[in-house]
What we know:
The protein is α/β, with parallel strands linked by helices. The chain has one domain (9-176): Nucleotidyltransferase, domain 5, CATH 3.30.420. It is 20% helix and 31% strand. The chain is built from 4 helices and 10 strands, in the order E-E-E-E-H-E-E-H-E-E-E-E-H-H. The chain has helices at 56-66, 91-101, 145-148, 167-177, and strands at residues 9-10, 16-23, 27-35, 41-50, 69-72, 77-86, 106-112, 123-124, 139-140, 142-144. The strands form 2 sheets. Strands 1, 2, 3, 4, 5, 6, 7 and 10 form an 8-stranded mixed β-sheet that branches. The protein starts with 8 loop residues before the first strand and ends in a 6-residue tail after the last helix.
Amino acid sequence: MEGDYKIGTVPAGGLLLVGGADVQKDRIEASVWAFGVGKESWLIEHRVLMGDTARDEVWKRLQQMLNETWTHESGASLPLVRFALDTGFATQEAYAFVRTCRDPRVMAVKGVARGAALIGTPTAVDVTQGGRKLRRGIKLPVIPGCVSCSCKPVAMPASFKLRSCSNVAFIIMVYCLGLFVCA
């Protein structure tokens, strides 16, 4: 079903917002999705935050995005309830962002080429200088890429063009919500 809604606004059926981001060398691509009854979903926004991910500026813009709200068709402001950050590239920078933003909505995840399970058991990835894993450090679930490639949003405006595939972000959001919305 093609959505009849304006990018940046949440349609009437949208009940909560989740986001996900893919980190590249020169940018962070972040998407915000609304989910509703019956596992219906809408792409609300896809943002390309240009900048060297080895520097703080692009991470500051991501933090600003996390603090934003989106307007529901009813006029209500909706914040993100969960946000997943793929740590496959610029791994240490992504871990540092999750660690320092101290936002319980933000989680680090890792995509892999193949996997037996839809979502792997989270494993500790933070280590001390001596190399020992921190029990209370970042926990990283593994998400198979082969599963993420079959995921499609239920509704997206026909005029909306995605610069690059955000399937990893989409499956991350599915995980964040505990829903299985893939076809």
